[in-house]
Design brief:
This protein is α+β, with helices and mostly antiparallel strands. It has a single domain, classed as Creatinase/methionine aminopeptidase superfamily (Creatine Amidinohydrolase), CATH 3.90.230. Helix 1 packs across helix 2 and helix 3 packs antiparallel against helix 4. The longest helix is centred in the N-terminal third of the chain and has 21 residues. The protein is globular and about 50 Å long. The protein binds 2-amino-4-trifluoromethylsulfanyl-butyric acid and cobalt (II) ion (2 copies).
């Protein structure tokens, strides 16, 4: 049985790890399934319908649907949209767009939450570099996870990498970390303690213990870090400066020796280009 530690974070047992393996795998399978569909001319609404039906046929529930009033089953965040983009039939993807698809399924009562970036047709080199840096930032955060490390260690690894300088079309770029959204504890609840910040100082914050489940989901902006939520729909978060933004997300556990990622792609499609499906 799970128990709650003195900081209010749930510590899970072996059976609960097994349940999360199933939920996480399904969430990753949804992203694998939708990958070949992401092409110029398809609407984000069509992607939502396809994912919704896949999730329901697998015996699961799309967690975003009706979550705090969210109207759709997946989040689709294009270009300057940082996160929580709402799919729509009228939103047709065009060559050169960069898209994040964020999937959360509830399977047997457990949540699997994962997102990846998708290039729509041929994208700019600048956007390819932003996407690569975002994936690398996430993985550097994940690599810090082990018993005795802290949430600050994770945040620092992500921030320190993202705010480094990158060669970018003959110039050097720095990316910025979005601070308005964070990773989160997850399990039978979609969003719970702890908050997993994507910035921080080594040694600060909660100490990690085996049995903790949480997400790491950094958002990197090509420009400034500022975010603004759409006043009409109340969800869509855009960069204030309208620069492009990228995000990847995994759900993972702290284990006795390090970490276990629950949402790895069964097809090995971790980041673009998703070579094996092109053609
Ligand atoms: N999947 C998102 C996350 O990573 C949350 C989406 S909530 C929604 O936490 F309501 F926008 F779907
Ligand atoms: Co999440
Ligand atoms: Co998510």
């Amino acid at each position: 049985m799970a128990h709650i530690n003195r900081h209010g974070i749930t510590i899970h047992d072996a059976a609960e790890f097994e349940a999360m393996r199933r939920a996480g795998k399904l969430a990753a399978e949804v992203l694998d399934f939708i990958t070949p569909c992401v092409k110029p001319g398809i609407s984000t609404g069509a992607l939502d319908t396809l994912c919704h039906d896949f999730i329901v046929k697998a015996g699961a529930i799309p967690a975003p649907l009706h979550y705090r009033g969210f109207p759709k089953s997946i989040c689709t965040s294009v270009n300057e949209v940082i996160c929580h983009g709402i799919p729509g039939e009228a939103h047709i993807l065009k060559e050169g767009d960069i898209l994040n698809i964020d999937i959360t399924v509830i399977l047997g009562g457990w949540h699997g939450d994962t997102s990846r970036m998708f290039p729509v047709g041929k994208i700019s080199r600048k956007d390819e570099l932003l996407i690569d840096a975002t994936w690398e930032a996430m993985m550097r955060g994940i690599c810090m996870v082990k018993p005795g490390a802290t949430l600050g260690d994770i945040g620092h690894a992500i921030q320190n990498y993202a705010e480094n300088t990158f060669p970018n079309e003959g110039k050097y770029a720095k990316y910025s970390i979005v601070t308005d959204f964070c990773g989160h504890g997850i399990g039978t609840v979609f969003h719970t303690a702890p908050n997993v910040l994507h910035y921080g100082k080594p040694g600060r914050g909660e100490v990690l213990e085996p049995g903790m489940f949480f997400t790491i989901e950094p958002m990197l902006n090509a420009g400034k870090p500022g975010a603004k939520i759409d006043t009409v729909d109340g969800w869509t978060a855009r960069t204030k400066d309208r620069s492009n933004s990228a995000q990847f997300e995994h759900t993972l556990a702290v284990t006795e020796t390090g970490y276990e990622i629950f949402t790895l792609s069964p097809k090995g499609w971790f980041k673009p280009p998703y070579k094996e499906m092109i053609g």
